Amino acid sequence: MTSSREIKIFSNARELAEAFAQELYETVKNTSQRFDIALSGGSTPKLLFEVLARSYASQMPWERVHFWWGDERCVPPTSEESNYGMTQKHLLSKVNLAENQVHRVKGELNPEEATRDYIDEIKSNLKERDGWPVFDLIILGMGDDGHTASIFPHEMNLLKSNQVCEVATHPVSGQKRVSLTGKTINNADRIYFLISGKAKASRMAEIINNTEEANKLPTTHIQVAQGPVTFFLDQDAASEIENN
């Protein structure tokens, strides 16, 4: 599969996070509308949240921003494994937000109930296009196995699911997660990947170079109709891409 992609390469993860924070600030500042953004977990988003909290706490028009998550582990919000908990610690607690601007997955519920609750929250709040909810921006990461959100290579069916969200299962631990599905992700206005580290280099090269193996990777199948998918990569993650 080929799709429109924009690739931005930075020296290291810190520089990547700084650049992305600036781009996010400019995007939100230049819109007068509510801005719905779905976040990712992981070490690179953690860096981003720290940059936003440090440098943009007073600048960003936070009153326009509503926070969502692309996926969440089925754990309580106080758990160290919670994507929401990480965001709360490094960003949400440090900026001025109303309670109704934060739309977390209730990971403390059983997985099916948490999924239904999150679908209801999305459908009650987001505008639709072609029968699917529209996020203004979805931030994604990529695992060493090419998964994104909690769509893993052994559950490629989630890319084509007719549900807004699904229960996903980690292939090693068996942990249950709630994840946006492929059709929901691909209906976003913008999709930005934040990917850093040498461990991601071979998968990133397969995807960008459109190898046959790449078709087996969920990240390959993320694309938006409205424009390119943008990859923010550090030099390590981009190191095996041809003509880098």
User: Which percent range describes the beta-strand content?
Assistant: 15-25%
Shape estimate: globular
Overall tally of domains: 1
| Strand order, largest beta sheet | 1-11-10-7-2-3
The CATH class name reads Alpha Beta
What summary fits the major beta sheet? 6 strands, parallel
Compute the separation of the termini in Å: 21 Å
Report on the structure:
The protein has 244 residues and is an alpha/beta fold. Helices cover 27% and strands 20% of the residues. It has six helices and eleven strands. The strands form three sheets. Strands 1-11-10-7-2-3 form a six-stranded parallel β-sheet, with helices on one face. Strands 4-9-8 form a three-stranded antiparallel β-sheet. Strands 5-6 form a two-stranded antiparallel ribbon. α2 (43-55) links the parallel β2 and β3. α1 crosses α2 (43-55).
Question: Can you describe this structure in just a few lines?
Answer:
The protein is built from six helices and eleven strands.
What does the secondary structure layout of this molecule look like, with pairings?
Elements: E1 5-10, H1 13-29, E2 35-39, H2 43-55, E3 65-69, E4 71-73, H3 83-90, H4 111-125, E5 128-129, E6 132-133, E7 137-140, E8 165-169, E9 176-180, H5 182-186, E10 191-195, H6 201-208, E11 229-234
Parallel strand pairs: 1-11, 2-3, 2-7, 7-10, 10-11
Antiparallel strand pairs: 4-9, 5-6, 8-9
Helix pairs in contact: 1-2
Salient structural properties:
244 residues; Rossmann fold; 6-stranded parallel beta sheet; 3-stranded antiparallel beta sheet; 11 strands; 20% strand; globular
